[in-house]
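Hi F.,

I've been meaning to write this up properly since the lab meeting, where we talked about keeping a consistent format for the predictions we share between groups. The idea is simple: the sequence comes first, exactly as it goes in, then the structure tokens exactly as they come out, then a line or two of notes. No screenshots and no reformatting. I'm using this chain as the first example so we have something concrete to point to.
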Amino acid sequence: MTPAQAAKLSAGLRTSLLQSTQELLGSALVLAMMLEDSLHAAEESLALHALRQLKEVSRAEHVMEVLSYVVSFGSFVVFVWVSKCAVASPSFRPDASRLNRLVYACVTEPEAYSSARLKQTKPGGGAERAETFGKNAMRLTFCTIGIQVSYLLWGLMQERIMTRPYATGELFKSSKFLVFANRFLALLVAWLGVVVIRRFKLESTEHDTPLYKFAHSSISNILSSVSQYEALKYVSFPTQVVAKSCKMVPVMLMGYAVSGKRYTAFEYAVAIAITSGAAIFKLNEDSDAPVKNTQFIGIIFIVAYMACDSFTSNWQSKVFKQYGVTSMVMMMYANLFSSGFTALGLVLNLEIISVWSFVEANPAIVAHIGIMAICSAVGQLFIFYTISKYGPLVFATIQTVRQLLSIVLSILFFAHPINAMEMLGIAIVFVALTSQIYQKYQANKAKEQAKVVAEPVSPAELEERAGSCSDEERINAVQGLLKR
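Output, unedited:
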């Protein structure tokens, strides 16, 4: 073989080897790309599968949550219906057994009420008629301060529990257990209060109220509390408490629906002004909630809270006036039903197991729940007394003040951002509240003057009233009596 032929053969071999190498590298590259696509597809499939599993778990949890409430409330409705049928039977005897007495007390509507008891407990009747405006204002101020202090601390503890992770890095998710803890401790406090009242005969705790009527406000109170806790998962705390200021309008509308209560145009104007201020705040606030794309869910929870809470106070006011129960008795029975409903719900969906595991892993939450429950129980003492004496709208006004003070504390402690438009919204709310307080003062003053002129009084009673009036009020009162 000549050198030229050898060189030609060597060049051919190199070319063939290069082509084979290129084809092999191309095949390897295609195989790698196919493998990469397969891996991406597998990862996407696993991610979608995990996402579907999370959605299925979340959906199952919500279904169990709804089911637990349906079973809890539904079982009580069935019990009331069966009890009414049993009591209506001609063979039913209330004194035959303890169960019969319980059934009779739960569903029997009394034919007549004690006029003496109603006179003692009905707002504006009996001894309250001789009470001066100053004493009445001092009592309302004391109730207001009690509610403010109790629920400002309660609100801060609530935000700490629901929005800040604990030692394991997890958030506490059981709003139902928090409701149960609050209601159960309040039940113990109210029961102890009733025992002390009966022991020292401070006032009558007897009543003719069918026990099932206490359950109406318990159910609405549970739903409002759960909605309030759930709202914290989707909106910031300041947004929640400002939006709740809008519930003055629902309270007024619910008052008409429940008791036929009517309000003046000025009172509606104040409520609308407060609502407008809250809306300005909401529209100019950026939510710092953990889930950014579900703010509408938070709004739904807030609306549910306002509707249920406005029904609760109006229904309790109706029971106070209709049956003459005391605030301590109302607190005891309302929390008895609330504790029972929430405890049954925790057991039905096995939520109590997850709560126990969380508490074991994060024992620091026990102190937080305890402080929150104590604040709630103390606050309820003031709340039930305020509703029984002054009605649901006054209570709603006190709550509005508390909520706006909660905003300030929340901003200071948790550094929630606030801008000029939000400040404008808060200012509108405060101006509306100030005008409402001034109008109430003028109305009460005119009412007291009208009482002095219109009511027949003895010389001794006139002298007593004159001691608490200004010189101008005394002159007007004497002129009115002379005209008569």
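Notes:
Residues 134-440 form one domain.
The CA atoms of residues 118 and 324 lie 5 Å apart.

If this format works for you, I'll send the rest the same way.

G.
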